[in-house]
Batch of 4 targets.
Target 1
Amino acid sequence: MTISEIAKLAGVSRTTVSRVLSGSTFVSKNTRDRVLDIIKEKEYKPSIIAQSMRTNKTRTIGLVLADIENPFYSRVAKGVMDVVETKNYNVILCNSNNDIKSEARDIRTLIERGVDGLLLTTVELKMKTIENLIDRGFPFMLIDCKLDTPGVNYVVNDDYYGAKLATEYLIELGHKKIFFLGNRKLLSLRERFRGFKDTLEDHKIEGDTNFVSQKFINVYGIYDIDKIIKYLINREEKITAIFAGNDYLAIKSIKVINDNGLKVPGDISVIGYDNIEISCMVKVPLTTIRQPKYLLGKLAAEQLFEILENGSNKEIKRIILRPELIIRQSCKRMGNYKS
């Protein structure tokens, strides 16, 4: 079935059928309904290539995930996909694997393939990459990456506030020897570390903020986590609590602590961040910070489509979501301490 055949059956021109397919308003309701009825009856599927040539749009969105194996990003992607499906668009998914060079390459490739817009969950975007997108007026949204540069749109979790929630909770339980576990090269973890450090300073507590954890941690490397937890357990100055930058680090830390003959929370309290699905299913249910992962993806996609449909990227769209503390069983009050 072709456009010409649809036009003949409907008693209209090919141009009229094309206008109906493109959503043009220059067609009467009766004519539009007649054409759409025939299209439905004949199960006509317009060529995506032909449509893109006619409208200069591919009806495709590029989604770059920082780590496809991380459950956090799978929920973000689900939020994106659900919106994209309602818009009858397609998604090209790329996994940068927490690598800045891969991230930049993925963005270039997606633009070359003609995507209409980009959704980016980033490790540490180079400003040159962002500036190129802004200069060419290319529609994009950052997800869980706060970058207050003119022309940048984002939907983020308030990681600074979330970190303060976690740290305040540990302090309320009487903990003062708290270690922040995470790769501070990651933008989101950088904000979490800042919230952690500022909260300790507010309470005049000297936390473990000077230790260079980069020596041991390479993003989410399991072997490196083993080394750093063993170091913390065996060093002379003991810690009483770990604030892990994400739930993966927290869950792995609990395993290593247990493997070395100690107990959580008996010997060391552990708090995570993200509230991934498995965090409540592990042997010691994890106290953590819940951030609305699905909503991050959903809102980012909705904002991107608003930009695409309005034909302008000038109005800055920035949404900040508030996280919440989820108390489970991985933290305990210090002996004889009352808040």
Note: The radius of gyration is 25 Å.
Target 2
Amino acid sequence: MNEMQAGESSKKERREQKREDREKELAKAARTRALLRILPWAVLALVVAALAFGLWKFYRAASRVSESLGPDFSRAADDEGAAHISEGTRVEYKTNPPTSGNHWSDSVGDGVYEIPQPDEGLVHALEHGRVWISYKPDISAEVIERLEEIGRSRIRTVVTPRPQNETDIAIAAWTRFDAFNLGEGGTLDEKRILDFITRFDNTGPEKNVPAQGGRTYTEPWYKN
């Protein structure tokens, strides 16, 4: 092969190589375009799958909680509003214990109280998603101690004595309450209380309020 033939062969090889390189670039670009078309749908599919899995886990957990709960003895109550009124103003509520309505601007704080607290401060606590456990002061010290233990072991819970209760025990959340007497021999139905807390904790119109110090009231509470 002479030099001219060798040169022509080399040019041909270079052209062929360029053609192959161009074809590879075009194929790569086509694959990239196809991937870019598919990618949003793939991401969407992953998001939908993740949401579906999350919902499945949530409903599975909720189902397990529901299966572990006993009968719901609570009663619904009308929403009586949530206006702030001057401290010391007495409010006549429609339910005993109250579950909503006008209230004082300072909420009774979370925790356990050895002395009664005003309904008007406690209703404010219910507005913040609290559960209020109240009891007649003349029940046994053993039951009172157990109620206080429940109150200390739970967030967003208030425990107080309340002489005006019609039953030994009353539990209130926003627009929801349960009231019952102790069982035979003065036994306390703890599960009934714990189930109420599970169902209605943090259900007030201003829920998700962090743990609060609030206010401890001392009598006299009212202006008249």
Note: The two ends are 123 Å apart (CA to CA).
Target 3
Amino acid sequence: MSRTCFVEFNRSGFWALSDSLAVLLGQAVVVAEEMAADRHSAAFEDVVDQLRASAVVTDLGLLVAEDWRGDRLDLLIQLIEEANRRLGERGRVTASEVRGWTALGDDVIELRRDTVDTAPVVELGQAVLQLLREHLPPAPEGTWWFYGVEGGRQTIVMRNVES
């Protein structure tokens, strides 16, 4: 399990602390499972399945397909907004609590820390929403944004990748 993971939509993205992304996406799955059954559709299942997989296997990051427009994208935004609202009311979550989120079925989110402060998770959620709405400001030249960390958004230097 990597400490960091990438969040991407429409050829834009940023890095995130894996524990923070796991908490955000896990809470979004909990929100989805609480929705009325009549709202469930193929699009709903696609979104929830991706959130569940990305929450449990954070090495996957969150890669939102470019063709996720309309219903799928709207639902994803709605779930992240509500997850963010709930997490913002909390202050912190424990690893034990996160492991007990039953909406994930038999899958379990394993965090590196015993307690996760929710302020960095909420900031990450806001960045995900900006990315999905294509309003995320660009990182300074030669850097990536890095979200979900104590103290707020940071930058990390891009590595030179040679073919």
Note: The first helix runs from residue 18 to 34.
Target 4
Amino acid sequence: MPNDAPTVEVDINANGKPGSRWSRYGELLRQQMRSKLLRNILTVVSGTAGAQMLTMLFMPVITRLYGPESYGVLGVFMGVVMMIVPAAALSYPMAIVLPKSNTDAGAVVRLSLLIAVGMAALSAVLLYGFGAPLVAKMGVEEITPFLMLLPLTMFFGAALEIAQQWLIRHQLFRITAKVAIAHSLLHNLIRSAAGWIHASAAVLVFTTALGPLLHALMLLFGIRRGSKTGGDDDSAGKQTGVDQTLAVARRYSDFPLFRAPQMFINTVSQNLPTLVLAAYFGPAAAGYFTLCKQALSMPTHLIGKSVADVYYPKITQAIHRQEPITAMLMKAVAGLAIVGLVPFGIVFFFGPWMFALVFGSAWESAGEFARWLALAEYAIFISRPCTVAFPALSMQRLSLVFEIVSTALRIGALFIGAALLEDSLSTVIAFTFASIAIYLCLIALTAVESRRRFARGYRNA
């Protein structure tokens, strides 16, 4: 316990003489800059920043080429993709970071790929037989021509996540950063050039669906190149026996049992607004929402996800060493809360004017959506470190229960806005307040559970 009696601080410099407080702060800053954790965060942030900056520069071109209705069709298609991607490998890629041995991690990679191939094939058969009637009942017939593209995009998304988690495990953040920038430039050039030749919803959907495949291939090239230069072992590429693959499948069975359903429910609740807006108010309203989510999620991907990706292996290692992680998580949350005030605050106050200026006059209504969605995205932004703590703490069961309750709250909010108030903006506002409540509860729950599980020795982690 600290002593509450008043004390007198005397700074001593290297010569044993009293030094200035500023010199001590300067030394502390230099130590922080030498910190591997901070360097990793800055590396990922710089790569993600470059990628997001390029995407932002291309967005005014793409929005003017395609228009709100094409964006609405894309939003519905990608909403469905995001719903099914968690099932692609049953969330096993998230477990790649956890094994102590690289051989076991390679077995998880192999298991994830096998499951992804099987799930993509199964979804192709189901969509061929029942896809058209299903989307008709959902009221989103706009994506009927693209149904058979869904299984391919589903597999591409799983392959991308596998590559990303392997790089996170080995903390090869430099490769992640370089590929993020190169992929953003190449992918947006493809979408823009294709739209200049023939701007249509089909072109936008097809070129966007190629994104995960292109990204995964570029990361794989980076991994292979790193292994040849000694930057990484090639455990992921080594053959592992059936027994070992089955062993890691059993060891991390909580991921398909709890994490995959939780992620599925989460993505459904996150992307349900796009489907609801398309079904009740038409593709243009869905297009407004899609653009808002894409633009507002940039700070989350730029900083929030970067911090989370770096903290995930650090949290896992701390748990292996039986060290407390609550303070680490809350410091990250507080830091993100400060960083996010300015960008999200600007959108809240000036959203309509900004969207009309940047994306064209046809998108001014999207700015009204954006000013409210900025509040929801801010809550998501500050909670990112907590989301990676759930798998590290083996909280899959609790996470699933939390997600079910959260989804029920979001569905209720959407029902109030769309079915009762019958107004698209009211639907967005209701969804926003539900999201804020959900993510604040997530932060509180993570703080309580991380402290409790440390006290009992991380027996289930």
Note: Residues 21-455 form one domain.
